[in-house]
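FAQ: What does the model actually see?

It sees only this:
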Amino acid sequence: MINDLHFGPGLFDAASPSGGALPARQMSLWSTVSDEDDGGRDSADAIVEACLGFGWETRGGAEEIFAGRYEEFVRTAGLDRRVRTVIRVAEAAEAGEGSALSLLPFILADPARQVIHTAALEATLLVPMADGDPLTGPRTLLAFADTFSAGHARAGILGGLLLLGDRRILPLIREERWRLAPAGRSMLMEAWSGYALAAQIDFLVDWLEDAPEYDFGGIVAALAAIPERASHSAVIDVERRFPRRCGDDDGPPLIITARWSIEEYAAILAPRLLDLHRRETPPRTLQLALDAWGIRR
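And it is asked to produce this:
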C-alpha cells in the first residue's frame, strides 16, 4: 500500500530532482489530480499525473495524493495497460517531468509482479549517479526496499534489478534474496523479461548451489522454463548504462556484450547442473532442468 512509505533522512537524495520546487506544469497537474472529480479524464492519465507529482513532492502525504485512486485503477485496468502506464511515467520522468520516485507508487500499490518489476527496473535507470558510482541506481532501489514492510515490494525491487541483466548487480542482490519470505522468493524466481539473460540464469544456478533442497522446486522450474521462453533462442549478456540518460556522448544505454545459442549455454551450465543433480537426494527435481536444456547425464 502507498501508506507503507516511511522516509528516512537523506534516503531519497540520490533519486530526488534537484532543487525541490514543483515546476509550473506540475503545479497545475497537482491541483487537477488532487480533485475528487477527474472531469471525465482517462484514468491512466490521472495516474500518470499523480505519479509525476509524487516524484516531486515525496515528503507530502501519499494517501492525500492518491486517495484510493490506484486501487481503483487496478480494478478497472488490465495488466498490459498498467505496464504501459509505468512506461509512460518513466518516459515523462526521464524528460524532466518527474523523478525516479515517480515509479514508487506502482511498486507499492500494484499486486502484479510484472508491473512492479517494470517499475523497479525503470526507476533504477532514472536515478542520477552519485560520487561517480555507476551503481547508484541499484543501490538506491535496494535502500528503498529496506524501508518497505510490504514483502511484495521488496521482492519486486529485487526482481526488477535482476531483469536489468547486468551481472555487476548480482553481488548486490545475492544476499538480499534470503531476507524474503517464501512468497517473495517465489516472486523473484518468476521474474521474466522475455529474454534469456545470462546474469539471471547464473543467478538461479548460484541460488541452487546455495539453497536447501526443499527450495529447489521453484528455482528449477524457473531455470527449466527459460530455453522454451527465450526470444530468438539465444542467451545474452548485457551491460547497462546507469543512469540511462546521462549525456549525448556516453554511448548506447544497453550493450549486448556476449551472445550464445541455447545449446552453447547449456554446455556452459552442464558441469554445474550435473554436479547438483549427482548430489541431490531423490526425487531429483534437477532432471527437469537437465531435460529442458538438453543436458545428458
